[in-house]
Write a structure and sequence with these properties.
It is built from 4 helices and 2 strands. It starts with 7 loop residues before the first helix and ends with a helix. The protein is an alpha+beta fold and 108 residues long. 58% of the residues lie in helices and 14% in strands. The radius of gyration is 16 Å and the shape is elongated.
Length: 108
Amino acid sequence: MKRESLGELEELVLLTVGSLAGQAYAITILEEIAEQAGRKPDVTAIHSVLRRLEAKGFVTSSMGGATADRGGRRKRFFTLTVAGRKVIDETMLVRMGLYKKLLTIQGS
């Protein structure tokens, strides 16, 4: 069975959406990636990745209420789906398996 693969930025965004637990929108995702990974991708790249992840069924989105600080515009919040959690779990298991193998080789 073919496993869905994620690009590096897709993986980071998906992990970030899950870790922000209901408070994930483009700017908070961007800020969290900058803080945790030391990278600052362009906000348009974040939007593009979020659209791809939503099309794949890995995240869902909903509109929040309008806020004065955004000139009355609403934020689109993203949530990790069951399928998104599954693909990120599988990705992390592969990475951890390879890393453990590396540690074994390095330790000998």
